[in-house]
Write a structure and sequence with these properties.
72 residues; transmembrane; mainly alpha; membrane; transmembrane helix
């Protein structure tokens, strides 16, 4: 459940950074690179880390199930 909440938060922050960056670019704000480059990269990095953690966890779970079934 925690991974689902974190993925939702990171996805929402990615979308909001794009929308805010587009508005800043249109209005001529000088902070548009922050919103269109830096914040999306941070969000994507968080999503990648979350997916890697989930992959490790499911791989350990699958490896543990195979080991237990071999003992039976």
């Amino acid at each position: 459940m925690r991974n689902l909440v974190v993925a939702f938060i990171l996805g929402s922050s990615l979308a909001m950074s794009f929308f805010t960056g587009e508005e800043a670019l249109r209005n001529g704000d000088r902070a548009w690179p922050l919103w269109l480059i830096v914040f999306p990269l941070v969000s994507l990095g968080g999503l990648v880390a979350l997916l890697l953690e989930h992959r490790k966890k499911t791989k350990r779970r699958c490896d543990g199930d195979e080991g237990q079934s071999a003992l039976r």
